[in-house]
Write a structure and sequence with these properties.
single chain, about 280 residues, alpha/beta, TIM Barrel, 8-stranded parallel β-sheet
Length: about 280
């Protein structure tokens, strides 16, 4: 079983602009020794480690951790997609087989049309050449732009992080549901069943998450959905154990092979097999 979305960070590195003392429970270092007991408790044997800072230095930091941590199966890093040498930087990073994808932090970019900039084209083409996955950290309003990006780059593997962060707290499903369905209509797209609890009210229950999880699962199908914890961010909304138990409840009606896809097989195929790894 694979946790397809987790983070590590060391606060004194200083490049996590969003990570401030106001976040309390997660404003401290989180490293492999903190996560290992949680993985063992849930029989999870591997993870995909995802960037949390918009710097190449952090990507290299994560790759160093991955090489020293057997359960980290791959790293989704970051590059400046608009840099003149973006393609060369991607090629250099992709020489490390543990790099499996790249993620621009679209949700934090002021320009909602950033995904449509022509300046991204060389970087996206380089990702396709090197078999890297584009992790889309987007909000509902970005989905129409993401659809256009996918149409321009049909060979690019795209994973929608956190179901595009639907507005669960407000009980809103439109136009998120239809826009997500438009993304799912492209066969190379995948969606992570992750990050939902931090979009829900603090006192969330499984019933609050179910309409959104059901939408993700029905739209993409269970074989194009992958479980992720979003740890340690999930500690802001109940923690790893509570979310894992909720996720298992949300997928309990699927067949055993379909549950296996959600809980690991899809992540293995999307991130690892694409890079020629088992």
């Amino acid at each position: 079983m694979i946790d397809a979305h987790q983070h590590f960070w060391r606060v004194d590195r200083g490049d996590y602009g969003w990570l401030t003392p106001t976040l309390g429970a997660i404003y401290r270092d989180f490293m492999p020794d903190d996560l290992a007991p949680l993985l063992a408790r849930h029989d999870i044997t591997g993870t995909i480690l995802v960037q949390a800072a918009p710097t190449i230095a952090e990507t290299r930091f994560l790759l160093e951790i991955a090489h020293a941590t057997p359960f980290v199966r791959g790293v989704v890093g970051w590059v400046d997609f608009e840099a003149a040498d973006a393609a060369e930087t991607i090629a250099a990073l992709a020489a490390d087989p543990l790099l499996v994808g790249l993620r621009p932090m679209v949700q934090d970019i002021a320009d909602d049309d950033w995904l449509l900039r022509p300046s991204l084209e060389p970087a996206l083409d380089a990702m396709v050449r090197h078999g890297l996955v584009f992790d889309a950290l987007v909000l509902p309003r970005h989905l129409p732009r993401l659809k256009t990006l996918i149409a321009r780059h049909p060979d690019l593997a795209v994973v929608v992080d956190h179901g595009a962060k639907p507005r669960i707290r407000e009980g809103l499903r439109a136009p998120w549901a239809s826009d997500l369905a438009a993304i799912a209509a492209t066969p190379g797209s995948i969606c992570k069943l992750s990050g939902l609890v931090t979009e829900a009210a603090p006192e969330w229950g499984v019933a609050d998450l179910r309409p959104y999880a059901d939408q993700i699962l029905a739209t993409f199908g269970p074989r194009r959905v992958m479980f992720g914890s979003d740890w340690p961010v999930v500690n802001l909304a109940g923690g790893y154990d509570r979310w894992r138990e909720a996720a298992l409840d949300l997928i309990q009606d699927f067949s055993r092979p379909e549950r296996a896809a959600i809980l690991g097989d899809t992540a293995t195929g999307v991130y690892l097999t694409r890079r020629g790894r088992p």
